[in-house]
Design brief:
heterodimer, A: 311 residues, alpha/beta, nine-stranded mixed β-sheet, three-stranded antiparallel β-sheet, 6 helices, 25% strand, globular, B: 361 residues, ten-stranded mixed β-sheet, zinc (chain A), EC 3.5.1.15 (chain A), Aspartoacylase (chain A), AstE_AspA_cat (chain A)
Chain lengths: 311, 361
């Protein structure tokens, strides 16, 4: 199909968010480190701003205070009249939108990296919100190549129902980094270092782009989110089964129809009854029990990214 | 020592507690299932088991605690303190639990209190108790070790007198926590829950056998006695941590830590080494809940403890029971004899003494 050159402006303003969930410790620690000394994240020609998005939740080492900040950036919340009676995280979303947005406008930050941890065995996952974000696709292609043979799965959350309004979504190019497994409130060295390395490559990419390097067309294998699977529950809403031992920790591995999925407390196996093979992820994420999600299924897809070059 | 048998009262009233920390889910689910399937109190031959959800409010919110850590509220001082409408929920609850399962230190207290916990540390299954000479607990420990081959089973001893003992299990005449890890808080892992169910089942099996008159032979068991806690290095001004557990120590609970072994890795990549002079066994390595308590890891000594042969009192034997003072004296004598035989006296390394500010669970 030849060159499909996409012209981009310089990626001049970049933010790194930590503490969107106050108990996801890698991001909190890295951002606090970089607020003290930003040398490591400095790149020529770009302003890189480390920022703690939910300081009250960080202080209490809890996911959120009133409501999940990473679901709070809806149009409704952002356009609501500001006031102290609003939930803390909604007020915070409005403030963040003012500093780094406004979401959807030309003044918004070019790139925001949002640092997260998960109790799921997801390794270093990159989260992509739009299949048409060629800049992000090229960045993710670059990162995957840079950390090979280690892998960096890409989760595409573009879905009419399942997509949610993240803090990073105020930027033109939002990127989620989700690294696990790590318990909430815990800082594991290896997880911390993995996140740090991925971010380093991401910033290197931005620097190369700003220096005028052309990135030729490429393809990126992604996992597109498909279906949210809740725990089996009784009529009172109590969970009556757990993630099956065969599925536990098997993020990104194929789940075929008939494979074990849940195990009831008296030992009965419940099996996956979908039409075809899916790739589950966010398996047994602690924060998702209350969101009625045991795991999410994905389908593999290959996305094409056009060439990009700074104008 | 051989052939010397200790006769003890039956363990007829057992309390099984979960949700003492509301986000340690194995115990929460185990208790919930038991309460759903059976009556709250089950009576079988020789044994009645009370199942309790210790901190329902914290369970409902899936938090460790709502105002203060319930599992630090069972000291004599806290249990006997006054209650006003400003008293934290957990202190009110600890006094309620003391009424239900105690009173602590009295003849009415439950014979055995078993409290179910999880840890983010890679500790396998641990029984945690305040005594290293409670023969009931130590025999249960040995029984679990022999019955459960899939997971390491260990015994941790915190050397505190009863009135200073602060956790729920100290309310019973005998008591211990069952602590299983690694599991993230707020998560149920099926394999961890199975392990806990198995552990509880074997424990109740032992109690049933004991109460039925089975004699359990004496022997030796390994015990880890808590020596000290180690905090993270912290920034002088902000008090924030400046290093994480070193990758070579992470997940290596109960692997001997020697002088100069790596302990922490600073955020700038520097390795901080163990400065103690005595090799010790680390545990509770990187337990999430302990960051706020200033504990990165705990350290223990290991030793071999001799346990006597035991059996339960028979009908009619009660009249011949010694007074509890005589019984205590006899237990102390037995302990002394066994320590002489089995205790491996550690060389004094001249290490500075740290106060035994042990805190667990």
């Amino acid at each position: 199909s030849g060159w499909n050159r996409i012209i981009n402006n310089v990626a001049r303003r970049v933010a790194i968010f930590g503490g969107t969930h106050g108990n996801e410790m890698s991001g909190v620690t890295l951002v606090n480190l970089w607020i003290q000394n930003g040398k490591e994240i400095h790149r020529k020609g770009v302003e890189t701003k480390p920022f703690i998005t939910n300081p009250r939740a960080v202080e209490k080492c809890t996911r959120y205070v009133d409501t999940d900040l990473n679901r709070a950036f809806t149009t409704e919340n952002l356009s609501a009249p500001s006031g102290d009676d609003l939930p803390y995280e909604v007020q915070r979303a409005q403030q963040i939108n003012e500093i780094f947005g406004p979401k959807g406008s030309p003044e918004a930050y070019d790139v925001i990296f949002d640092l997260h941890n998960t109790t799921s065995n997801m390794g270093c996952t990159l989260i992509l919100e739009s299949s048409k974000d060629h800049f992000n696709l090229q960045m993710m292609h670059y990162i995957k190549k840079a950390i090979a043979p280690d892998s960096c799965p890409v989760l595409l959350t573009e879905h009419p129902l399942l997509k949610y309004s993240t803090s990073r979504s105020v930027a033109k190019h939002p990127i989620g980094l989700e690294v696990g497994p790590q318990p909430q409130g815990v800082l594991r060295s290896n997880i911390f270092e993995s996140m740090r390395v991925v971010l380093k490559h991401a910033l290197d990419f931005i620097e190369l782009f700003n220096e005028g390097l052309e990135f030729p067309p490429c393809t990126v294998d992604v996992f597109r989110v498909s279906e949210k699977m809740d725990y089996p529950r009784d009529t009172n809403g109590n969970i009556i089964a757990m993630v099956h031992p065969n599925l536990q920790d098997c993020d990104w591995e194929p789940l075929n129809p008939g494979d074990p999925m849940f195990q009831t407390f008296d030992g009965t196996t419940l099996r996956y009854e979908g039409a075809g093979t899916v790739y589950p992820t966010f398996i047994n994420e602690a924060a998702y029990y209350e969101k009625q999600q045991a795991f999410v299924t994905t389908r593999r897809e290959t996305l094409a990214a056009g060439a990009i070059k700074k104008t | 020592m051989e052939g010397r048998e200790v006769v003890l009262p039956t363990v007829s009233r057992v309390a099984l507690c979960g949700g003492t920390h509301g986000n340690e889910l194995s115990g929460v689910y185990l208790v919930r299932e038991r309460l759903k399937r059976k009556r709250k109190v089950e009576e079988e031959d020789h044994i009645s088991v009370v199942t309790v959800m210790s901190n329902p409010r914290a369970v409902q919110q899936c938090r460790r605690y709502t105002e203060t850590d319930l599992n630090r509220c069972f000291t004599h001082a806290t249990l006997s303190g006054p209650v006003t409408d400003k008293t934290p929920y957990e202190i009110v609850r600890s006094q309620e639990l003391n009424t239900l399962l105690g009173p602590k230190g009295s003849p009415e207290a439950m014979d055995l209190v078993c409290d179910l916990h999880n840890t983010t540390a890679n500790m396998g299954l641990c029984l945690i108790a305040y005594s290293d000479c409670d023969w009931i607990s130590l025999h249960i420990y040995r029984y679990l070790q022999r019955q459960m081959s899939d997971i390491p089973v260990r015994f941790i001893h915190f050397d505190l007198p009863l009135n200073e003992a602060y956790s729920l299990d100290s309310v019973g005449k005998h008591g211990f926590a069952i602590e299983i890890g690694p599991q993230a808080h707020g998560v149920v892992r099926s394999n961890i829950l199975s392990t806990m169910q198995e552990g509880v089942q074997h424990m109740l099996e032992w109690v049933h056998l004991f109460n039925s008159g089975t004699q359990f032979e004496g022997g030796k068991v390994d015990v880890y006695t808590m020596v000290k806690n180690v905090d993270y290095p912290r920034d002088f001004e902000t008090h924030g941590i400046t290093a994480a557990i070193h990758p070579q120590l992470q997940d290596r609970d109960f692997c001997l830590l020697r002088p100069n072994d790596p302990v922490f890795q600073t955020f700038s990549g520097e390795t901080l080494k163990y400065k103690g002079t005595e090799p010790l066994y680390p545990f509770f390595i990187n337990e999430c809940a302990y960051y706020e308590k200033g504990i990165a890891l705990s350290l223990a000594r290991q030793r071999s403890v001799g346990i006597p042969s035991i059996r339960s009192e028979r009908e009619g034997e009660q009249g011949k029971r010694k007074s509890s003072a005589d019984e205590m004296e006899e237990e102390e004598t037995i302990k002394g004899e066994m320590e002489g035989e089995g205790y491996q006296k550690l060389m004094e390394y001249g290490e500075e003494s740290d106060s035994l500010n042990g805190q667990h669970n």
